[in-house]
Design brief:
This protein is α+β, with helices and mostly antiparallel strands. The two termini are about 25 Å apart. About 30% of the residues lie in helices and about 20% in strands.
């Protein structure tokens, strides 16, 4: 496969067959691929560890993976299926959006009808509300980052520069200057700090305007000045209701700009929608995330998370760090497993019990030889993870867990 040397093997881990290159960025490329066992199409984001380490973007990549894992349940957000890792690369296995970018559809159509614009905007707000309720702020919403699936439904993607609540400064604001110029909110340009939800709402306003008009509202040589002043004009075909709604979305003052809850209650937004829950519901269209049911046991995705690298602690270790990890499912109790480890190593190594369900085994000089961690899967089953320092020529990660599709 000729891709500039990024992919040496056409088959990844004997499971995914690479197809055409879909896009690329500073340290990652995205390919179409096929699951050889199921025939399912997926998108594979290939991240170069060396480039990430060189640019000091380790935490950036970890955050992106963690965010996508957290947001996996919403139907209008591209789903992260699996993370695979080798010595040199990280592979994010993502939902494949067959319809491509929303931008291409707008360009092809010239502009969308008001009803079609509303449909996609409703789906976008549903996804955004879900993100914000979980403390995630996208910060780069634009037509290029909105994809369409085979049913022409919206999928939000690319959380590469997203922020989380932990990044909020003591003044209650975010301060990183980031985003795409034509979609930047005025308060980002002011460089005095900004509210994450409010800048996402501004970007949503740009997207809605572009869908209805067929062009961006601030596409001007004096782009930043126009944005800062909030000066734009709607085309003649825009209904009075939509003009009023856009003026609330593209309010240059974040203080008076419309909120998510106000968006949901706006008459233009609600038109044509049936059974929209109140703003107090978990999610706009009732897609609840049952966290209460997942507190004590691992669910299917948690099992997947153990396969090949969603343990982010070692995912971007320096190249000279190698670990072998073996994982298996057992019907034995955690206490019995720990007892067996103690018995096997008694007299040879020092076994130190940890507060959680696990132990670490130390050699004569106090160095850690291996660790054992036990994770409750169901009332009857546990996952046992054994991690030991390996060597460069040995496998970095081995797993005995079957990954359900």
């Amino acid at each position: 496969m000729d891709d500039g040397g990024d992919i040496q093997e056409k088959i990844l881990f004997g499971k995914y067959e690479f197809g055409k290159l879909l896009g690329y960025g500073a340290f990652a490329k995205v390919y179409h691929a096929k699951n050889l066992r199921t025939g399912q199409s997926v998108a594979i984001k290939v991240i170069s560890k060396q480039k990430v380490l060189e640019r000091g973007l380790t935490e950036h990549v970890k955050r992106e993976i963690s965010i996508m894992r957290q947001l996996r349940h919403h139907p209008h957000i591209v789903r992260l299926y699996e993370v695979l890792a080798t010595k040199a690369k990280i592979y994010l296995l993502l939902e494949f959006a067959k319809g491509g970018e929303l931008l291409a559809e707008v360009n092809k159509a010239g502009r969308f009808s008001e009803d079609l614009s509303r449909k996609y905007f409703q789906q976008l707000i549903s996804a955004l509300r879900y993100c914000h309720s979980r403390g995630v702020f996208h910060r780069d919403l634009k037509l290029e980052n909105l994809l369409l699936d085979e049913n022409s439904d919206l999928k939000v993607t690319d959380f590469g520069i997203s922020a989380v609540t932990d990044q909020i400064q003591p003044d209650g604001l975010l301060h990183t200057f980031c985003g795409t110029p034509a979609y930047l909110a005025p308060e980002i340009l002011a460089r005095k700090g900004y509210d994450g939800p409010k800048v996402d709402i501004w970007s949503c306003g740009i997207i809605l305007y572009a869908m209805n008009a067929g062009y961006l509202p601030f596409n001007d040589p004096n782009l930043y000045l126009k944005i800062y002043k909030g000066e734009f004009r709607c085309p003649d075909w825009t209904s009075p209701e939509l003009k009023r709604f856009l003026s609330r979305l593209l309010d240059s003052s974040p203080i008076t700009r419309i909120t998510i809850d106000q968006i949901i209650n706006d008459p233009w937004f609600r038109k044509g929608c049936k059974n929209i829950p109140t703003v107090s519901d978990v999610d706009l269209f009732g897609h609840e995330d049952c966290d209460e049911n997942r507190k004590h046991h691992l669910n299917a995705f948690d099992i997947i998370s153990f396969s090949y690298g969603l343990d982010l602690s070692g995912l971007l270790s320096p190249p000279n760090c190698f670990f072998e990890v073996e994982r298996f499912v057992s019907a034995e109790s955690p206490e019995r497993i720990i007892e067996e480890v103690v018995k096997a190593e008694e007299g040879r190594m020092t076994v130190v019990r940890r507060k959680d369900l696990g132990v670490k085994v130390e050699g004569p000089n106090g160095e850690i030889v291996f660790t054992v961690d036990i994770h409750r899967l169901t009332e009857e089953l546990v996952i046992v993870e054994i991690r030991r320092r390996g060597n460069e020529n040995g496998p970095q990660i081995r797993t005995l867990i079957y990954k359900p599709e």
